[in-house]
Design a protein that fits this description.
The structure is a single chain. With about 120 residues, this protein is mainly α. The chain has a single domain, classed as Substrate Binding Domain Of Dnak, Chain:A, Domain 2, CATH 1.20.1270.390. It has four helices and no strands. It is rod-shaped and about 100 Å long.
């Protein structure tokens, strides 16, 4: 009987340990850092993805305040990915703009070269 009680209490302790998620402080820090980095390269809150990232980070903060660590972690992870997408899209658009500018410059040089001949 004693062994059964110990096994039962151990199992309950294990289940209780699995049921509670740790505070996602590192994920929240990483998400804030990712949003800051996206803004540093030029992404703005006008970007739907960056605005969504900021919104999800705020929701994660509210979930954390409510004690829902799992929801806070999931929202923070989603916000991080949204911020990374915003950064990638901004850098991609910046590269496209530079390519258009460079192509126009090459076209002008070709035209000038044609006039010299």
């Amino acid at each position: 009987m004693n062994k059964t009680l110990i096994i039962l209490l151990s199992a309950l302790g294990l289940l209780a340990g699995c049921a509670s998620d740790p505070v996602p402080s590192e994920q929240l820090r990483l998400t804030e850092q990712t949003i800051t980095q996206a803004k540093a390269v030029g992404a703005t809150s006008e970007s739907a993805e960056l605005a969504l990232a900021e919104q999800k980070l705020a929701e994660a903060g509210r979930a954390l305040a409510d004690g829902d660590n799992k929801a806070a972690r999931l929202l923070a992870e989603q916000a991080e990915l949204d911020a990374r997408l915003a950064e990638a899209q901004h850098l991609n658009q910046k590269s496209r703009d530079q390519l258009v500018e460079l192509s126009a410059h090459i076209a002008r040089l070709r035209q000038q070269l044609g006039e010299v001949r």
